[in-house]
Write a structure and sequence with these properties.
By secondary structure, the chain is α+β, with helices and mostly antiparallel strands. The protein contains eight helices and eleven strands. The protein starts with a helix and ends with a strand.
Length: 258
């Protein structure tokens, strides 16, 4: 088949699909450039397209999916009657990245809200709550999807394991953060300042005005050696720097800016 004939076939398919003449759900106008044209017998043209639907129904057009099944749809085009007939489909083994999928499920989840439902204040209470929630989701079939039945028992077991680990990590991390004592940025600045001034070679922490030339060169916070009058550290993350020089204890965190 030459390129001219192939383009003609694609144009016919495009016109039929655009007018709503495509059977089923597997074919849309933007798929036409991806179809594979097979046997041509007079006015009858066989063609197919590979689709990769997400196992849990999430839209992934143009993006990598963490769990998908490759499905090949087969069609027959009648060039004379300008019609398309759906012939069937074939499915390959599903591809699944359980860790990536589980992580994506909770990407925008508010775990601090979950803590309001915990009956108790200890980490053990939080873990018990997390396990109970995941058990309920599994028993209620919360993670079912259009093609989820294609997963093997081993894949399902691994997926549930990753979901449990991700959820428990989220709620325990939120719990741990709430146990911390907040320290204002101003107080943290003063703590760091005292630490630096007590060093054998005294230093001083400065704050540059945003929008200034100095700010563009050294960032918001920078350190100057008072003996040499030179900048020794620049573009400092003050919370991380405070942890580094022991101005912020493990049970403390910097108060979020409003």
């Amino acid at each position: 088949m030459d390129r001219e004939q192939e383009n003609k076939i694609r144009c016919v398919i495009y016109d039929i699909v655009e007018k709503g003449g495509a059977p089923g759900e597997g074919l849309d106008t933007w798929h036409v450039e991806r179809i594979s044209i097979g046997a041509v017998n007079g006015n009858q043209v066989h063609f197919s397209i590979d689709r990769h639907p997400h196992l849990f129904g999430s839209p992934t057009r143009g993006q990598a999916s963490s769990a998908y099944a490759t499905i090949t749809y087969f069609y027959k085009l009648d060039m004379e009657n300008l019609s398309i007939e759906f012939l069937g489909e074939e499915r390959d083994e599903p591809v699944i990245d359980c860790r990536m999928l589980a992580s994506g499920m909770f990407e925008h989840h508010d775990f601090s809200e979950e803590l309001k439902n915990v009956s108790g204040k200890t980490e053990e209470d939080v873990i018990a709550y997390g396990n109970e929630m995941v058990d309920n989701w599994i028993n209620e079939g919360t993670f079912e999807g259009k093609y989820i039945e294609t997963l093997t028992p081993a894949q399902m077991e691994e997926l549930y394991k990753c979901i449990r680990e991700e959820f428990l990590y989220g709620v325990t991390s939120a719990w741990g953060f709430e146990q911390k004592v907040s320290v204002s940025k101003r107080a943290l600045f003063q703590r760091v300042q005292r630490k630096l001034s007590a060093e054998p070679s005294p230093k001083k922490l400065y704050k540059a005005r945003k929008g200034s030339r100095l700010f563009s060169n050294v960032g918001e916070y920078y350190v100057v050696d008072l003996h040499t009058n030179t900048v020794t550290r620049s573009k400092i993350d003050i919370e991380e720097f405070a942890k580094e020089n022991n101005s912020l204890a493990s049970h403390e965190c910097m108060e979020p800016e409003k």
